[in-house]
Amino acid sequence: ENPAIIDSYGWVLFRLGKYDSALKELVKAYDLFKDPEIAAHIIEVLLVLDRKEEAKIRLSEAQNLFINNKYLEDVSESFLEWLDEDIPWFKYFLNYDDISANRLCI
Predict the structure, then answer these.
(1) Is residue 91 pLDDT above 50, yes or no?
(2) Longest dimension (CA), the chain
(3) Alpha-helical segments (H) within the chain
């Protein structure tokens, strides 16, 4: 079981809107290999699922493991303000694909 392949599969599921399945695969990949990019993917899926508290915990844990990591800094800068909002962060965007592909580079 290759964590990079599992991560890619999880991200494809995310892009297809299969968020629960995506989260399951991404967590599996992260359990096999602690990687900041996989952690960032998990945090993004948790946000889409409106699981803000779990996203906060995951972000904090990942930032402690991977200090000054670009992936986590991007997630933190882009989404931290929405973690404290009462509405899902993704409703701010008209085109999520542009955000993930161009802004986060994930």
Answers:
(1) no
(2) 38
(3) 3-15, 19-32, 36-48, 52-65, 70-83, 96-98
Task: Give the number of other CB atoms < 10 A from CB of residue 98.
Answer: 10
Do 86 and 50 contact (CB within 8 A), yes or no?
Answer: no
Owner of token pair 């402690």:
64
Distances, alpha carbon 5 to alpha carbons 30, 52, 62, 64, 72, in Å: 11, 27, 20, 25, 20
CA distances 97 to 31, 32, 34, 60, 93, Å, are 27, 27, 25, 25, 9
pLDDT category at 83 given cuts 50, 70, 90 is low
- The reported pTM is 0.76
CA quadruple 43, 48, 54, 55: dihedral sign? positive
3-state secondary structure of 47: helix
Is-contact 48 21, C-beta < 8 A?
no
- The amino acid occupying position 3 is P
Tens of pLDDT, residue by residue over 48-78, are: 898 988 988 999 999 999 998 988 888 887 6
